[in-house]
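Crash report, auto-generated. Payload:
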Amino acid sequence: MNAILDRNRVWWARPRATAGGRQVAAKPVAKTTSAAATAGRPPAAGGGAFVRHLRHLLATVVPPLVVTGVFLGLWEMATSSPGASLPAPSQVVSDTWELIIHPFYNHGGNDVGLGWQLLASLERVAYGYLLAVIVGVALGVLVGQSTWAMRGLDPMFQVLRTVPPLAWLPLSLAAFQDSNPSAIFVIFITAIWPIIINTSVGIRNISPDYVNVARVLRLNGFEYFTKIMLPAAAPYVFSGLRIGIGLAWLAIVAAEMLIGGVGIGFFIWDAWNSSMISDIILALVYVGLVGFTLDRIVALTGRWVTRGTQSS
Amino acid sequence: MSHRYLSLEGVQKTFGAGAAATEVLRDIDLAVDRSEFIAIIGHSGCGKSTVLNIVAGLLETSRGSVILDGKEVNAPGPDRSVVFQNHSLLPWLTVYENVALAVNKTFGRRKSSAQRRAWTIRHLEMVHMEHALDKRPAEISGGMKQRVGIARALAMEPKVLLLDEPFGALDALTRAHLQDEVMRIQQELGNTVLMVTHDVDEAVLLADRIVMMTNGPAATIGEILKIDLARPRNRLELADCPQYNHYRAEVLKFLHQRHRNPEAEVA
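Recovered output after restart:
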């Protein structure tokens, strides 16, 4: 996709064209919101661990189901009138049913299933985020270790980290002359700041006790790095990584709206241009679920890697 | 006087510089024989831990020198292993790995890996921690952590073992138990030990000589008390021993009459 052209797209005008030849379906479907239906089940009678386990399970599962059900019900009621500007949940499901059941269709060009769109976005995030992790941890170690480097680099970091992700996009388009590396760069530059800052704080907060142990043992620089510094700073590093992945996922949607091509951000923008509000809502749900999953993956990795390091 | 195994000669330590400089230690002269157990006692803030850190090489002297076995001390090293007050085990390593890290670093070239493993386990057995090799520090009690800390220090086969208030954070029963262990191990291995403490009973029970420090700033050695009690010592028998109680009274008099706690005087 040619980014230089896309830049000139007038994207606040609302065109009428439909995308990909799909019809804007409008037939109502009587589909109940079944989430709340399971909530009222009575707890099983009798004693034992199984029942306690079941009761615990119900206690954790029921509240989110009830709240989600109520939310969907309110939404359904609010948007059920004929002149409503947003579709009701039932409408969304019926409109997007083809998209839901065929996540990996491929009609060529940009007309591919939501699964492909998400994978395209995830690929960009993966590249940008991995680069940010490598460079961010390295810079964080440098800034945490060297007072000179901290004094030199910290003011620049503090200013640059407040620049909104999308503000970097024109600059990176000018530099890379291509949309894909530009998007990756935006992810990189968005995710790197919390990684740098948290890593450097983690390095600076290494307990003097551990440093003394290292000195008595006469650990050399490499041994100190691998045996003391990395494990001691790991909890901080991982909280930086977790903030970083969240920001990266926030930035990719916005960046893809501008650069076009394939990607969930572009899909949302394309759906808007085609007035397919239901598609947008479905995409938002997917974006949220993927973002949540990414966050959990990083959090669980962090918990696994830093098991035991918090206590002393 | 420099024929002794470990000697501190005219050690002086000043923190800070210029107008903000504080002289912490002045004219510390101490000579220690091989296999001698020295306790350093004094009120908090008198600089007794500073003495230990200087011997460890973690701090540099402002003037004077520390000589161990004919060589001047000017950097930390495994020949002066430290048991820190808060154990300082690395929480991301298991009990075995914590000791093995020290063993591998100290004997990396001189012992085969099987020998190093046996050496590590032997020292953990010495402190009765062989049952918890694969536990992490967070999973064991405070007393156990300190046992591992002691095993780590002993496993480095130091010329002098430095104990920095090693039992200060433990409850009285655990402390007594560990004191007995340290006494037994020191008898067995003949370690030269320098121990900082503020516990009078601990000092009298464990030490061959007690170094009593005056209050800071510019603290120095006030008196040195030789403890002539036969070893092995038993805390139950000593409780009724007049000589033991005499030594105890001597230390108490020094700490509470001649050099009272500066904080108590303010209050």
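Post-recovery validation: Chain B touches chain A through 25 residues (CB under 8 Å).
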